[in-house]
Design goal:
Blueprint: H1 2-14, H2 20-35, E1 42-47, E2 51-56, H3 59-62, H4 64-80, E3 87-91, E4 99-103
Antiparallel strand pairs: 1-2, 2-4, 3-4
Length: 104
């Protein structure tokens, strides 16, 4: 898992403009904005006391192991770059119609 978290950190640094939840929101928007050119990926986010992200991601169809073992560590590594230490996956595809994460 450490390698996956480090990959998240690396990619988070590539799109980082500022720290905190606002910076994390922008970082995800930038990162997933680029990813949509390669996969059928839908991403949205809401910023309040927490950053809540929702996505419809096709990865579970092609690499279910990623969703099961690696997506959460990747998100934790990405968020850590912005000084955000708390990450929780609330919903996951295919059990739900979307993946939902909370960051604080």
């Amino acid at each position: 898992m450490v390698v996956v978290e480090k990959a998240g950190e690396f990619l988070g640094r590539l799109v980082k403009m500022k720290d905190g939840l606002e910076g994390l929101q922008y970082g995800f928007q930038k990162f997933f904005g680029e990813a949509k050119d390669y996969v059928d990926f839908k991403f949205s986010s809401e910023l309040g006391d927490k950053l809540v992200t929702a996505s419809r991601c096709p990865i579970h169809r092609y690499m279910p192991i990623w969703c099961e073992k690696y997506c959460l560590p990747f998100a934790k590594g990405f968020a850590r770059v912005y000084g955000v230490e708390n990450v929780k996956r609330v919903e996951r595809q295919p059990e739900s119609d979307r993946c939902l994460f909370e960051f604080w």
